[in-house]
Amino acid sequence: MEPSTDADAGRPNILFILTDQHRTDTLGCYGNPLGLTPALDSLAATGTRFDRWYTPTAICTPARASLLTGHAPFRHRLLANNERNVGYIEDLAPDTFTFSEQLRVSGYLCGLVGKWHVGTNKTAADFGFDAVDYPGWHNPIDHPDYLAYLDERGLPPYHIHDQIRGTLPNGGPGNLLAARLDQPVEATFEHYMVTRAIEKMESYSAARRNVGTPFFLGLHFFGPHLPYILPNEYFDLVDADLIELPASIQESFHGKPPVQKNYSAHWTFDTMPLHISRKLIAVYWGYVAMIDAEVRRLLDAAERLGIVDETAVFFSSDHGEFTGSHRLHDKGPAMYEDIYRTAGIVRIPGGVPGQVRQEFVSLLDCTATILDLAGEDPTSAVDSRSLVPILRGEEPVWQDEIVCEFHGHHFPHPQRMIRTGRYKLVVNPESVNELYDLQIDPDELHNRHEHPEYREVRSELTARLYVYLRERGDNFYHWMTSMYDIGAVGYDPTLSGFDEGTYTEVPAPGSELETENVP
């Protein structure tokens, strides 16, 4: 290990905690009334909680690739999970920028414990991480290191019962949604991962004490992604009778894209009685509580090692989870707040404690923030913006909307979304577009896209999204050019090169709109 430089003394360690498929409303600091997340609530009280934090796309691999690269999914082109990939590329291109490789070059130790899921053939080690390879989308309970961990401690092997699942059209069992785990907490994969993360943090902290080298350590949980597999104490932690079903459980899908109703059938929602839906939500909340207890172990270890004041801590998730909202489970081609708005908590040395910010930010912005904290050029993450000024309590000029994208899961399904303070527009090329007025319809039950009283709102949001995509280089805008009223066009939409003279150069539609901005 090379000796540290003077610059290393001012560079913080970075601890990044990422969960998978985690609803914002399960955290106490985001309004959950049951106090299930004291560790994360404490982190929020000592750092910054972002109220409008979004994933760039609500699916695991593309979102994680965006965090790694600082590139929007359309740019890094890793657009689907490999388990259900239907033709997209399966690994990042060899010349793709990643923050981990940049940190490694600049002298950071870089470690990752837990879920990777960024491609098919390339592992975390290929991108500069000191990491054991944990393949797949859920806890790899047959991993040799996990089995050795159980054996060394005399802990029982994985076994489940009391499975919860719906019924398929053929009468067979639907997707597994939850089950009881016949292991104590100490034997869970979550406890094992945090044990390994603490071991790595202890090693890295010793290196910092001895030679001054800063470290980045990612702890990436596989949960609370379904199926929710929990020991009894967490499976029954939350009384299902206390669960209030989400208002959107009354979803009719009237005026919505048909694919949403199809996805509801895929997850067999209507084959299960409502008391089972309550139990599923209760078990999901129990899963969140179990993860929070493991986060507490990690943060306590940082305290014990005396590195809290020199360590930045991030917490977020790759995307959310439906858990019955809109009669859906998991995630999919429906750009609702349930799966796109996620928790975002960051604490940095010298940051403002306990602040809550309303800027629209993205998981993507973590990439530039990590680089900025490490003294590297944040603009290398081309679709990312450093949050450091906000974390320090400053008021930088910031965009008043967020744009997200989706490309498909079980099948190709391109979508784009723009969300402002009050409204959300979703463009669905294969069916109807969606417009939601979140001020009067926070549960997104009523699609107002074709309502005449929303014509001006619809027109402005369409133009704003069109301009944003075109300036960003997202070719989705070509579809919008010929399908919607986006204003005058200054290029041949066919891209034939035969008829450019018909189109005169005009200001980009929406860039100088004379109408007032949509709130």
Give an overview in words.
The structure is a single chain. α6 packs parallel to α9. The protein starts with 12 loop residues before the first strand and ends in a 36-residue tail after the last helix. A hairpin with a 6-residue loop joins β14 (423-427) and β15 (434-437). The chain has 519 residues and is of the alpha/beta class. It contains 14 helices and 15 strands. The strands form three sheets. An eight-stranded mixed beta sheet has the order 4-3-7-1-9-10-2-11, sandwiched between helices. The longest helix has 32 residues, at 274-305. The model is unreliable at 512-517 (pLDDT under 50).
Q: So what's the oligomer here? A: single chain
Structural class based on helices, strands and sheet pairing:
alpha/beta
Strand arrangement within the widest β-sheet reads 4-3-7-1-9-10-2-11
Report the principal-axis shape: globular
Q: Quote the beta fraction.
A: 15-25%
Distance between the termini: 53 Å
Question: How many beta-strand segments?
Answer: 15
**The biggest beta sheet, please?**
8 strands, mixed
Uncertain spans: 512-517
Written as H for each helix and E for each strand, in order along the chain, the element string is: EHEHHHEEHEEHEEHHHEHEEHHEEEEHH
- The number of distinct helices, counting runs of at least 4 residues, comes to 14
Round the Cα radius of gyration to an integer and report it.
Answer: 23 Å
**Overall pLDDT level:** 94
Question: How helical, in percent, are the residues?
Answer: 25-40%
